[in-house]
Amino acid sequence: MGLSHDLYDFDAPQRRLHAMAEAHGFVVHDPLPALRVLNDRSGRLYIPNDTHWNVRGNRVAGEMLADVVQELRESDERAR
Questions:
Q1: What domain range includes position 53?
Q2: Contacts of 61 (CB under 8 A, 6+ apart)
């Protein structure tokens, strides 16, 4: 829209998501901080001029999700 990036609060949606989840007792495993680091460090994870992940971004996010699921499974098995 031709406005400065400083005029936008790009973290507002994440803060709202976390607040809603916390209010309802849900745990959020947010990949955004790690995706931001990897996007800067090792190449683009998003489709240019789009909000969707590219193939690499989907792979990275999927691997993060798999790690979370594995941790939850291991935690559940230890609790038994």
A1: 10-79
A2: 31, 35, 53
36: in domain: yes
Number of structural domains (the chain) is: 1
Confidence of residue 56 (pLDDT cuts 50, 70, 90): very high
Q: What is the DSSP string of 16-78?
A: HHHHHHHHTT------HHHHHHHHHHH---B-TTSSSB-HHHHHHHHHHHHHHHHHHHHHHHH
pLDDT score at 79: 93
Q: Is the pLDDT of residue 61 over 70?
A: yes
In a domain, residue 71? The reply is yes
